[in-house]
């Protein structure tokens, strides 16, 4: 049975992971999140749930203002075939969240190894990061190393990555 947001908070506390919780109106986009939560201290994130042509799932956490070219991103993730956004149905089935509530913490509702988790390397250098705890009406502020540890304690293996330099993109054929 998937974790509820309150179950998730309990699990983090049981694991000794400190966080600060903020409640707010629902935010479904990065723009809405920044309008409502932009004054919360810490790096704000955007989270993408992607699938490749072989149906491999990827949960990717980036700085909120990062620009992503899915074509260039395929090699970063090791995706096979085309890379696209997963459906709302896949979000519910694999992560037990709705659109707007995606975060690495949603991977705790997935079997270890069923979703590959990637975290932008520069986020790991931040003092604090902000993520949703399975709902878009709450934001957690926590230390990046604690987030990575929480995922590892649940059997997941998050990977750090650097965004491809857009100036290094291959010319169009």
Rounded radius of gyration (Å): 15 Å
Helix amount: 25-40%
| The CATH homologous superfamily | YbaK/aminoacyl-tRNA synthetase-associated domain
User: Structural class, from secondary structure content?
Assistant: alpha/beta
The biggest beta sheet reads: 8 strands, mixed
Q: Globular, elongated, flat, extended or rod-shaped: what is the shape?
A: globular
Ranges where pLDDT stays below 50 over 5 or more residues in a row are none
How much of the sequence lies in strands comes to 15-25%
How would you portray this structure in words?
The chain has helices at residues 5-14, 30-37, 70-77, 88-95, 144-153, and strands at 20-23, 43-52, 57-63, 83-85, 115-120, 129-131, 138-142, 159-161. The chain has 173 residues and is α/β, with parallel strands linked by helices. The protein has one domain: Alpha-Beta Complex (YbaK protein), CATH 3.90.960.10. A hairpin with a 4-residue loop joins strand 2 and strand 3. The longest helix has 10 residues, at 5-14. The N and C termini lie far apart (48 Å).
Descriptive keywords:
single chain, alpha/beta, YbaK protein, 25% helix, 173 residues, eight-stranded mixed sheet
Record the SSE blueprint.
Blueprint lengths: L4 H10 L5 E4 L6 H8 L5 E10 L4 E7 L6 H8 L5 E3 L2 H8 L19 E6 L8 E3 L6 E5 L1 H10 L5 E3 L12
Parallel strand pairs: 2-6, 3-5, 5-8
Antiparallel strand pairs: 1-7, 2-3, 2-4, 6-7
């Amino acid at each position: 049975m998937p974790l509820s947001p309150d179950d998730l908070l309990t699990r983090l506390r049981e694991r000794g992971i400190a966080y600060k919780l903020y409640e707010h109106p629902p935010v479904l986009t990065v723009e809405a999140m920044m309008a409502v939560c932009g004054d919360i201290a810490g790096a704000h994130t955007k989270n993408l749930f992607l699938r490749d042509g072989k149906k491999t799932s990827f949960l990717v956490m980036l700085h909120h203002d990062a620009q992503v070219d899915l074509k260039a991103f395929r090699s970063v993730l090791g995706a096979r075939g085309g890379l696209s956004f997963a459906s709302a149905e896949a979000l519910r089935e694999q992560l037990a969240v709705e659109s707007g509530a995606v975060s690495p913490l949603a991977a705790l509702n997935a079997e270890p190894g069923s979703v590959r988790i990637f975290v932008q390397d520069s986020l790991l250098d931040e003092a604090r990061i902000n993520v949703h705890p399975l709902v878009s009406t709450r934001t957690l502020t926590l230390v990046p190393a604690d987030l990575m540890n929480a995922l590892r304690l649940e059997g997941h293996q998050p990977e750090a990555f650097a965004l491809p330099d857009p100036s290094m993109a291959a010319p169009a054929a």
